[in-house]
């Protein structure tokens, strides 16, 4: 993965150098559940910050150029799912596109797309508390100094369904998509569901992966917009749990 991440970091850094000081570079990383998109997005953001500090060693350690913004905080809360016409299905399908607050995500993207000025304030994105199984409002700060934003989420290149997904995608400077074989994603998801306590055993975890996650994944693949980068995530035995599912990545430019 390192070689490919290095290329993406170098490309992003180069584009940033040409950016007016009033603008942000905004990249959305998407893929099916279990593809490794979270790892890719977080690693790219971290390496960009490392590069920034190499060029400007006098900066404070917490003065970060790149911010990683996951979409998990835009899950609808359990109370909101309870209020849906069919709450049983809503809870069973949690993670499907209709169980996210696409409108609020679009609102944040629009605010971040505004020119940066001396009056620009810190904006906040929600996070997700896996212990409580609900979002936490205003938990991820996005400071005016954060001029490269790496968004990550399943539906950030989705062209159908709620129009907010497509509109948000069109506001990004680049769309990256992480591809993975379905069998590889399934095995990652089974391990993840058991570890997170979402499923009590492997049988229950496989059922959730097959009846929810991978159903969502097929929608994501079939209705994907054209993207700038396709990252192919492969299973080669080098995966480690701390990598959250990204094993190796071969990157190809999509025309």
TrEMBL record:
Region: Disordered, residue numbers? 232-255
Ranges in coiled-coil conformation: none
Q: Which positions fall inside the Phosphoribulokinase/uridine kinase domain?
A: 26-194
Q: What is this protein called?
A: Phosphoribulokinase/uridine kinase domain-containing protein
- What Pfam families is this protein classified in? PRK (PF00485)
Question: What's the source species for this entry?
Answer: Aureobasidium pullulans
């Amino acid at each position: 993965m390192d070689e490919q991440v290095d290329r993406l970091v170098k490309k992003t850094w180069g584009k940033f150098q040409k950016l007016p000081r009033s603008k942000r570079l905004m990249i959305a990383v998407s893929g099916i559940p279990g593809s490794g998109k979270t790892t890719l997005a977080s690693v790219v953001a971290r390496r960009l910050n490392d590069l920034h500090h190499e060029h400007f060693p006098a900066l404070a350690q917490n003065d970060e150029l790149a911010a990683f913004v996951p979409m998990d905080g835009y899950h609808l809360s359990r109370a909101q799912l309870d209020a849906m016409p069919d709450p049983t299905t809503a809870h069973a399908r949690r993670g499907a596109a209709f169980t996210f607050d696409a409108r609020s995500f679009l609102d944040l993207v629009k605010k971040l797309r505004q020119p940066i000025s001396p009056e620009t304030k810190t904006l906040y994105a929600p996070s997700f508390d896996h212990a409580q199984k609900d979002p936490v409002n205003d938990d991820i700060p996005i400071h005016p100094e954060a001029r490269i934003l790496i968004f990550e989420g399943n539906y950030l290149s989705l062209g159908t369904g709620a129009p907010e997904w497509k509109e948000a995608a069109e506001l990004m400077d680049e769309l990256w998509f992480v591809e993975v074989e379905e069998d590889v994603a399934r095995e990652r998801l089974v391990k993840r569901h058991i570890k997170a306590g979402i499923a009590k055993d492997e049988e229950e975890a496989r059922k959730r992966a097959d009846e929810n996650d991978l159903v969502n994944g097929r929608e994501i693949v079939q209705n994907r917009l054209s993207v700038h980068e396709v990252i192919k995530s492969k299973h080669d035995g080098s995966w480690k749990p701390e990598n959250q599912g990204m094993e190796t990545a071969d990157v190809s430019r999509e025309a």
